[in-house]
TrEMBL record:
Domain Bacterial alpha-L-rhamnosidase N-terminal, residue spans: 172-343
Protein name (record): alpha-L-rhamnosidase
MF GO annotations: alpha-L-rhamnosidase activity
Ranges for domain Alpha-L-rhamnosidase C-terminal: 796-870
Record has Cell membrane as a keyword: no
Domain (Alpha-L-rhamnosidase six-hairpin glycosidase): residue spans on this chain: 459-793
Alpha-L-rhamnosidase concanavalin-like domain span: 354-453
Length: 892
C-alpha cells in the first residue's frame, strides 16, 4: 500500500529560456488511455521568459506504431489547440503526437505526448454483464452490529462479491489493456495486484443513459503462461443508498450490482487475445460483508480469500456467475479524471474515552476514509469506526447532522499480529473518528485519514499576509475537494451528497480558479441534458434522482450558467455546441410559462436566496434576474456558435426582460422590491439597471445600517465582494472578508472551521449546533467568495470579451489588513501570476503574463506619476502589455 503524502498540488511550468510548449493534453487530459472520440482535440500550454513572446505557428504530427498518420502542416496561428484533422482514429490504438511551435523570431521547439483510443465501436464489446443471484441466497444477515432501525433497509443490501477468471496466454505480452465498468462499484485485480489507483469507479453518471468505462494498462501485470484477472463488486450509486430516500424507494438504477470487463492482450506477432466477462467466470463472497457509500463498510478479516486473483489459487467452491449477456448500449469512454486518494493525513490527536474507545482528530474535515492499523487483536475482536465532522461539548462525536447516514465501518480481526483495515466502497465526510473496541492503546501512528476526490488538476494558488484569509482559502479548497467526488455534490457527510444545481453554478467560477474542472463539469452537463424534462425544465439535482422538483430559479439556471462559464474560462466552444439545445430549451420553458417576462409561474421548489440571514429576498426579483441571466448567456452562446437569428432573438428577449424587471421591481428612488442585499446584487451583477448608482447606494446603506454585516444566502454571497469592489467599495468588501462576527466567514474560522459551513449559523456561541435537519460543515456554496480572492485580491481576471484568459485584466485591489497577496492561475495557454506587497510606503507589483496573452495592468497606487516598471519611470497607472515578467513600483 502506497501512502500519498504529497497532497493536491500545483505542477509548475518548466523553467525555460525561449518559447516552449508543455502540459500537452488530448481531450484536455494528460496522456489519456481509452479516449472515446476518433477526432480528439489536442492542446498545450506555453512558457517563455521573453517579453511579447507568442506562438507564431505550430505543427502537429500524429504517429501510430512510428508511422505518421496525420500532419497538420505548419499553421500560422497563435491558438494552442487543434482538432485531429486526418482520417478518423482507429479503435484500441496507441498514438504518439509531436508538437512543434515557432516563435515570432522563427525559433522552434518540439515536444511530444501520447494517448490511446478506447473501444470506438459498440460492436467491439464482447463482455457480458455478470451478476450474483441474490434472490436465491439465504436471507441476508446484516453483519456485526448493523442494528435497527437501519436493518430494515439492510435486508435489501447486496454484499460485495469477488469475481475471477484464470486464463492462459500462449505468447508473450506486447500490450495489455482492460476496459471495465460496473453497475455498482468495482475494483480490479490481476495476478495478485490491484489494477490502477482509481477509486469509486465507474463514478456516478445517469446510468440509465450513460455509463463510463475505464481503461487500464496492465501490460506489466500479465505474462506468458497462467494469469488471473478478478474484481470485487459492490453497490455504490447503482443500488446503494443515495440521498435521503430509504432503500424501499431507492435502488435508483437497479437492484443487483453487475460487472463488465474486457481484457485485450496484444502479442508481438500482431495477434490478440481477448478475455471478457462471460459465463466462464466464477464468483463468491469474501471479507467485505457489507458496503454502502452512506452507511459504511464491514470487513471480516477471518473471511479473507488469500491470493484469490493469482494463478495457482485453488478456486474450489467458487460458484458459476450469472451471465446476463451483452449490452453495451449505455457505455461511453470515461472523459474525466477519476476519483483518487490525493492525500493522506496523519492523525493529529487521539483521546482515550475508556474501555477501548478513542476519539481521533485528523485536524482537517475531509471526504474519504480511514486506514487503521490494528495490533494485538484476537480473532473475532470487533472494532467499530464512527465518523463525524464535529465534537459535542463533552468531547463525544457529533453525528446528529448525518441524518440517516450511518457513516460507520466495522473491522473484525483474524487475530494476526498486525492487521490493516481500509474500506474501499464507502466515503465519509469527517474530521473525527470514534474508534471503539480497539485492543490496547491507540496512537496517532495507527490512524491515517485518506482524502478522496475527483483528481481534477490543480490550476490556481492564492496566498496573502493574513492568516485568517489563508485559512478561508484553505477551507474553500477543502470544500471543493470534499465535494467534487465524481459529481459536484452539496455535502459529503449526511444522507444527501447530491449534485444540487445552484450550489454547482454558484461555486463554479471559484472552482475553476482552483482546478481544471472542464472535463469534470462537461461530464456533469451531459447528465444535465439527459435529465431535462420534455418541457425543458432542469431537475434540482444532477444526476437526476430523488427530488421530483425541476425548474427552480437559480438552480435550473445551471443549464446556461455552467456551459457559458466553462466556455469563458476554457475557450472550448464544443462545450457550448453540446449544451446549446438544453440551454435554449430551458429558457424557452421559462418564457412560455411567463409571457409577461416576470418569472412567477413554474418556479418549482423556489428556494429563494437559500440560507439568507434574517431577510427575505423577493422571490420574483431573484427569479426574474436569473431568467435574464440565462437568456443573456443563451444569446451569447448563439453568437459564438454563429447562430445569428437566435442570437438576435434572445438578445432582444433579454432587453425586454430587463425592461420588465425595472418596471416591476425598481421604484422612483431606485429601491428594488424587498430591499435586500441580494436583491440589489443580482440586477447589478447581471447588468439589468441602466443607472446603477442608486442601487449601489441602497446596497451600501443596507450594509452600513447593519454595521457592515451581510445577509446574503447562496445566491447573493458570490456577488457581494465582487460587486462592492466593482462599484468602488472595496473597503466594505475587505471588512466583510475580515469580519468574525456571526454571520461571516471569519466566525466559522474563529470557531475552528477547516471547511466552509453550509449555514452561517452552523454553530453559534449562543445556540451551539444549528438545526440538525440540515447542518453540514462541508458545503462549498458560501465559499464562492474564492473567485473574488483570485480575481480582485490577487487581481487575475479577463476582459469582458476575452475567453480562456487571452486578454487579461490584472487589477489587484489592496485593502483590509493585507500587506501582500499573490496568486497564480494556469490559463489554457500558460500561467499568469501576480504578487503585490507594500513595504515602507512603497508598493511593488510583480506580474507574469503567459505567451500569446495581452494584459491590461492596473497598478494600485494613489499616485500614478510614481509608477515605475523595472526601474524605468512609467508615469501612469494603467498599461497594456504582452507576455513577459513585469515589475512595478509605486507610492503605496
Ligand atoms: C439542501 C442542499 C443544497 C441546496 C438545497 C436547496 O438540501 O444541501 O445545498 O441546494 O437544499
Amino acid at each position: 500500500m502506497v501512502l500519498v503524502t504529497s497532497g493536491w498540488l500545483l505542477t509548475d511550468p518548466p523553467t525555460v529560456e525561449a518559447l516552449t510548449p508543455y502540459d500537452l493534453r488530448c481531450e484536455h487530459r494528460a496522456d489519456p488511455l481509452g479516449i472515446g472520440t476518433a477526432r480528439p482535440r489536442l492542446s498545450w500550454r506555453l512558457a517563455s521568459p521573453v517579453r511579447g513572446d507568442r506562438q507564431d505557428a505550430f505543427r502537429v504530427r500524429l504517429l501510430r506504431d512510428g508511422v505518421q498518420v496525420w500532419d497538420s502542416g505548419w499553421r500560422t496561428d497563435d491558438r494552442t489547440y487543434v482538432d485531429h484533422g486526418g482520417a478518423p482514429l482507429t479503435s484500441q490504438t496507441d498514438y504518439v503526437w509531436t508538437l512543434e511551435v515557432r516563435d515570432a523570431a522563427g525559433d522552434q521547439s518540439e515536444t511530444s505526448a501520447t494517448f490511446a483510443t478506447g473501444l470506438l465501436n459498440k460492436e467491439e464489446w464482447e463482455a457480458h454483464w455478470l451478476e450474483h443471484d441474490y434472490d436465491t441466497d439465504p436471507k441476508f444477515e446484516p453483519p456485526v452490529d448493523r442494528a435497527e432501525p437501519r436493518s430494515v433497509r439492510q435486508a435489501t443490501i447486496a454484499p460485495p462479491r469477488y469475481y475471477r477468471r484464470s486464463f492462459e496466454l500462449k505468447q508473450p505480452v506486447a500490450r495489455a489493456r482492460v476496459y471495465a465498468t460496473a453497475h455498482g462499484l468495482y475494483q480490479l485485480s490481476a495476478n495478485g495486484q490491484r489494477v490502477g489507483a482509481d477509486e469509486l469507479t465507474p463514478g456516478w453518471t445517469d446510468y440509465r443513459e450513460r455509463l463510463a468505462y475505464q481503461t487500464y494498462d496492465v501490460t506489466h501485470l500479465l505474462r506468458e503462461g497462467k494469469n488471473v484477472i478478478g474484481a470485487v463488486l459492490g453497490e455504490g450509486w447503482w443500488s446503494g443508498y443515495v440521498g435521503w430516500d430509504t432503500r424501499s424507494h431507492a435502488h435508483h438504477y437497479g437492484k443487483k450490482p453487475q460487472l463488465l470487463a474486457q481484457l485485450v492482450v496484444d502479442h508481438p506477432d500482431g495477434s490478440r487475445t481477448v478475455v471478457a466477462t462471460d459465463g466462464s467466470w466464477v464468483e463468491r463472497p469474501g471479507p467485505i460483508r457489507f458496503a454502502d457509500l452512506l452507511m459504511g463498510e464491514s470487513y471480516d478479516a477471518r473471511l479473507e480469500l488469500g491470493d484469490w486473483s493469482s494463478p495457482g489459487y485453488d478456486a474450489t467452491g467458487w460458484a458459476p456467475v450469472g451471465d446476463m449477456g451483452a449490452d453495451p448500449s449505455t457505455l461511453i469512454a470515461a472523459t474525466t479524471e477519476p476519483v483518487r486518494v490525493t492525500e493522506d493525513l496523519p492523525a493529529t490527536e487521539v483521546t482515550a474515552r475508556g474501555n477501548g474507545r478513542f476519539i481521533v482528530d485528523l485536524g482537517q474535515n475531509i471526504a474519504g476514509r480511514v486506514r487503521l492499523r490494528i495490533r494485538g487483536a484476537q480473532a473475532g475482536d470487533r472494532i467499530r469506526l464512527r465518523h463525524g465532522e464535529m465534537l459535542e461539548s463533552d468531547g463525544e462525536l457529533y453525528t446528529a447532522n448525518l441524518r440517516t447516514a450511518d457513516a460507520t465501518d466495522y473491522f473484525v480481526s483474524a487475530g494476526a499480529a498486525e492487521e490493516y483495515f481500509e474500506p474501499i466502497f464507502t466515503v465519509h465526510g469527517f474530521r473525527y473518528v470514534e474508534i471503539d473496541g480497539y485492543p490496547g492503546e491507540l496512537t496517532t501512528e495507527d490512524v491515517t485519514g485518506r482524502a478522496l476526490h475527483s483528481d481534477t488538476p490543480v490550476a490556481g494558488r492564492f496566498e496573502c499576509s493574513d492568516a485568517g484569509v489563508n485559512q478561508l482559502l484553505s477551507n474553500i479548497r477543502w470544500g471543493q475537494r470534499g465535494n467534487f467526488v465524481s459529481v459536484p455534490t452539496d455535502c459529503p457527510q449526511r444522507d444527501e451528497r447530491l449534485g444540487w444545481t445552484a450550489d454547482a453554478q454558484i461555486f463554479l467560477p471559484t472552482a475553476a480558479y482552483q482546478a481544471d474542472v472542464l472535463t469534470f463539469f462537461d461530464n456533469w452537463l451531459a447528465d444535465l441534458a439527459t435529465a431535462q424534462t420534455d418541457e425543458g425544465a432542469i431537475p434540482d439535482v444532477i444526476p437526476h434522482v430523488i427530488t421530483g422538483r425541476h425548474g427552480t430559479p437559480a438552480w435550473a439556471d445551471a443549464a446556461t450558467i455552467v456551459p457559458w462559464t466553462l466556455y469563458r474560462m476554457y475557450g472550448d466552444d464544443r462545450v457550448l455546441r453540446k449544451a446549446w439545445p438544453s440551454m435554449r430549451r430551458w429558457v424557452d420553458y421559462v418564457h412560455r410559462a411567463n409571457p409577461d417576462l416576470i418569472w412567477r409561474n413554474r418556479t418549482s421548489g423556489h428556494y429563494g436566496d437559500w440560507l439568507q440571514v434574517g431577510v427575505s429576498t423577493d422571490r420574483d426579483v431573484l427569479a426574474t434576474a436569473y431568467f435574464a441571466r440565462s437568456v443573456e448567456f443563451t444569446a451569447a452562446a448563439a453568437r459564438v456558435l454563429g447562430l445569428e437569428d437566435e442570437a438576435a432573438t434572445y438578445g432582444e428577449l433579454w432587453e425586454r426582460i430587463a425592461q420588465a424587471f425595472r418596471k416591476e421591481f425598481v421604484d422612483a428612488e431606485g429601491k428594488i422590491r424587498g430591499e435586500t442585499q441580494t436583491g440589489y446584487l443580482l440586477p447589478l451583477a447581471f447588468g439589468l439597471l441602466p443607472e446603477e448608482d442608486a442601487a449601489v447606494k441602497h446596497l451600501v446603506a443596507d450594509l452600513e445600517q447593519r454595521d457592515r454585516s451581510l445577509t446574503t444566502g447562496f445566491a447573493g454571497v458570490a456577488l457581494l465582494c465582487p460587486i462592492l469592489t466593482k462599484y468602488g467599495h472595496a473597503d466594505l468588501a475587505y471588512d466583510l472578508l475580515h469580519d468574525d462576527r456571526n454571520p461571516s466567514w471569519g466566525y466559522s474560522i474563529k470557531h475552528g472551521a477547516t471547511t466552509i459551513w453550509e449555514r452561517w449559523d452552523g454553530w453559534t456561541e449562543e445556540n451551539g449546533f444549528g438545526p440538525v435537519a440540515m447542518n453540514s460543515f462541508n458545503h462549498y456554496s458560501l465559499g464562492s467568495v474564492g473567485e473574488w480572492l483570485y480575481a480582485d485580491v490577487a487581481g487575475i481576471s479577463q476582459s469582458p470579451e476575452s475567453v480562456s484568459f487571452r486578454d487579461l485584466v490584472i487589477r489587484p485591489r489592496r485593502g483590509g489588513r493585507l500587506t501582500w497577496a499573490q496568486g497564480s492561475y494556469d490559463t489554457p495557454t500558460g500561467r499568469v501570476s501576480t504578487r503585490w506587497e507594500i513595504t515602507d510606503g512603497v508598493l511593488r507589483l510583480d506580474v507574469v503574463v503567459p505567451p500569446g496573452a495581452t494584459a491590461t495592468i492596473h497598478v494600485p497606487t494613489p499616485d500614478p506619476d510614481s509608477v515605475r516598471e523595472s526601474g524605468q519611470p512609467l508615469g501612469q497607472q494603467v498599461c497594456r502589455v504582452g507576455a513577459g515578467t513585469y515589475s512595478f513600483t509605486a507610492k503605496a
